[in-house]
Amino acid sequence: RGPSVSLSPPAIRVRPLTCTETRRGDRQVVHSLGDGTVHVSAARHDATFGFSAVFDVGASQEAVFEGSRMRQLVELAIDGFSCTVFAFGQTGSGKTYTLMGPPAQSERRPAAPGLLGLMQRSFACLLEQSRSRGADLALSASYLEIYNEQVRDLLNPGPPCALPLRWSKTRGFYVENQLSVDFESLEAITDLLQQGSQRRRTSAHTLNRHSSRSHALLTIHVCSRAVSACPALGTGGGWGSSKQGVLCFVDLAGSERVKETGSSGELSVEANNINRSLLALGHCISLLAKPRGKRTHIPYRDSKLTRLLARSLGGSGVTLMVACVSPSSRCLSETLSTLHYASRARRVTTRP
């Protein structure tokens, strides 16, 4: 265990105005001022926020990967640490694009290399690091979604069924009977990502044609064994120490106001469950942001999402939040909420 550190300071990504917003006459009210500062300027609202990095509307996917220090998280996972990156923000703010790139990718319709998200770039970096370090890496992946407070396995080809969420002193909260698949190549893990994403629940509404209706967690388990430089019993080499690391990507469903999205029926039920779990996550972050001596009980058990993120938020892991916001004047309230949310997360410390 190392010294106390903050969650990797949150990074902010401002997406461009959409064609619909431009035609409607929405104004851009969010601007990057440089040096990690973002300014919100609108009627009766004038606020400035500071973060580790702010990616404005013109930022490339590569710039977000390098500027958010995602490469360092991959290296820490290989070194045996538990690392998590999660994208947070209003529905339609660019979370899934930031993590995965354009929607509807497939083997026949791959995304252009420049549009690949944090996940694919991290996979490539992980395999590059494995080769350059001369380490023997055993890699496996699991992929699940939390839909209407039910945990579902996205890698299981059968019909979706709820999996039980358990607790143990050694593992913390974990999903029972979750499928874990070994992989050795970039093609294999990319294929797993695409297969699982196609099974994830999505729907269209007023603010987003590809709205995620669930929280999705892709977890890469990294077991590394370094090759010893010293000959072992005259054989010319031997195995060094073994390390167990984790790299988890969390694509949170977007917060939304039913009035704005026009949701009804099943969509409304989904929205209420999404907002309830995000509220529980925000409550945990607010309590974790308090000095250790003033903290009360952290209610991780309030939702399935906070149970599965308990170690990432307040335990022994290293966590990066990428907060995605819309610059549209129509989304001002949700944008301010996201920026305040990320500001609280800056004050959370863990012991990796």
Automatic annotation (TrEMBL):
It is found in: Cytoplasm, Cytoskeleton. SUPFAM superfamilies: P-loop containing nucleoside triphosphate hydrolases. GO terms for molecular function: ATP binding; microtubule binding; microtubule motor activity. GO terms for cellular component: microtubule; microtubule associated complex. Its main location: cytoplasm. InterPro entries: Kinesin-like_fam (IPR027640), Kinesin_motor_CS (IPR019821), Kinesin_motor_dom (IPR001752), Kinesin_motor_dom_sf (IPR036961), P-loop_NTPase (IPR027417). GO terms for biological process: microtubule-based movement; mitotic spindle organization; spindle elongation. Gene3D superfamilies: Kinesin motor domain. Pfam families: Kinesin (PF00225). Keywords: ATP-binding, Cytoplasm, Cytoskeleton, Microtubule, Motor protein, Nucleotide-binding. ATP binds at G89, Q90, T91, G92, S93, G94, K95, T96. Residues 7-348 form the Kinesin motor domain. Belongs to the TRAFAC class myosin-kinesin ATPase superfamily. Kinesin family. This is Kinesin-like protein.
